[in-house]
Cytochrome c oxidase subunit 5C-2 (Chlorella sorokiniana), 64 residues
Amino acid sequence: MSGKAVIRATQMFTKTGQASRISLGKEIAIGLTMGAALGFWWQTYHWDLAKKWDNYYKALEAQK
């Protein structure tokens, strides 16, 4: 590469502005934390729903 091409490449791939504050590790940690929290909420929601239906069918059987 010639001198001008090297300078242009370094200017294109140098982080400036907001890009200089982005951390890949931080983004991954935030994504994993949010995914785990939402996954736990989703799972407890379904456990509660299953418990509700189980109680409904038990009450239905008790009436017979």
About this structure: The chain has one domain: 3-63. The helical segments are 3-13, 24-63.
